[in-house]
Amino acid sequence: MLLDDRDDRAGVKFNDTDLMGIPVRLTVGRRGVEKGVVELKIRRSGEMKDVPLGDGLAEAVKNTLASCR
């Protein structure tokens, strides 16, 4: 797991995660949290989906990582 808390723009951070080959990216933003979701992106396919915050989040990440192998 990597937490990028630098004071850079989101695009810079997203580019860096792609360059490092991070397979799954979770984006926690103000608007998403207000809706009760985080954005999950699968690097290989480019698929993006909103995942509800709460107990199901860990399971969704675990399942996504397993499918990326």
Defining key terms:
alpha+beta; 3 helices; 3-stranded antiparallel β-sheet; Rossmann fold; 69 residues
Q: Layout of SSEs?
A:
Blueprint: H1 10-20, E1 24-27, H2 30-35, E2 37-42, E3 48-52, H3 55-67
Antiparallel strand pairs: 1-2, 2-3
In brief:
With 69 residues, the protein is α+β, with helices and mostly antiparallel strands. Helices cover 43% and strands 22% of the residues.
Structure notes:
This protein has 69 residues and is an alpha+beta fold. The mean pLDDT is 90. A three-stranded antiparallel β-sheet has the order 1-2-3.
Separation of the first and last Cα atoms: 16 Å
Structural class: alpha+beta
Give the overall form: globular
**Considering DSSP H and I runs of 4 or more, what fraction of the residues is helical?**
40-55%
Q: Kindly provide the radius of gyration, computed on alpha-carbon positions and rounded to a whole number of angstroms.
A: 12 Å
**Number of structural domains:** 1
Strands, total number: 3
Q: Mean of residue pLDDT? A: 90
User: Could you state the order of secondary-structure elements as H and E?
Assistant: HEHEEH
Number of helices: 3
| CATH hierarchy: architecture | 3-Layer(aba) Sandwich
The CATH topology name reads Rossmann fold
